[in-house]
Specification:
CATH topology: Nucleoside Triphosphate Pyrophosphohydrolase
CATH architecture: Alpha-Beta Complex
Structural class: alpha+beta
Radius of gyration: 15 Å
Helix content: 10-25%
Number of helices: 2
């Protein structure tokens, strides 16, 4: 997600003492289409509605999940908000809201980072890193 200030929305998360930085999103539920899942995940994680702008990247290599023994396929889209953004954001990585109640042992915080300041190595997962590089090719 890119805002009007040319900043990208980044999610910092901690699950069972494992910390990682990624793009907002999540898994597909049974019977759900890709875009429906993307819209649902933004509503669940960020509490606002989105519209898909364009497809960025789909993984074309084997990737094992970092959390279990499953294989994952990641699909990346650029999106824009279609309702007001009212989530708490910060400028500091892993700056969790002290009042946040961990759901399923998970903490999450969001931050807006200028496009030119996002380094590929700042993203934890290989699929996010490759998707970011693919996105950068479209804005240069």
């Amino acid at each position: 997600m890119i805002n009007e200030n040319q900043e990208v929305l980044i999610s910092d998360e901690r699950t069972e003492n494992v910390s990682f930085t990624k793009f907002p999103g999540g898994g597909l539920e049974y019977g759900e289409g890709l875009l429906d899942a993307l819209i649902r995940e933004y509503q669940e994680e960020c509490a606002f509605d989105i519209a898909v702008v364009k497809h960025i990247y789909t993984t074309d290599f084997y990737e094992k999940s970092s959390f279990n023994d499953s294989q994952i396929i990641s699909i990346y889209y650029q999106v824009k908000n279609t309702s007001a953004i009212q989530i708490r954001t910060t400028n500091k990585a892993f700056d969790f809201d002290p009042d946040q109640k961990p759901e399923d042992n998970k903490l999450q915080s969001f931050r807006w980072v200028p496009i030119e300041s996002v380094l590929t190595e700042d993203l934890t997962f290989k699929t996010d890193q490759i998707a970011w590089e693919e996105f950068l090719k479209t804005v240069k």
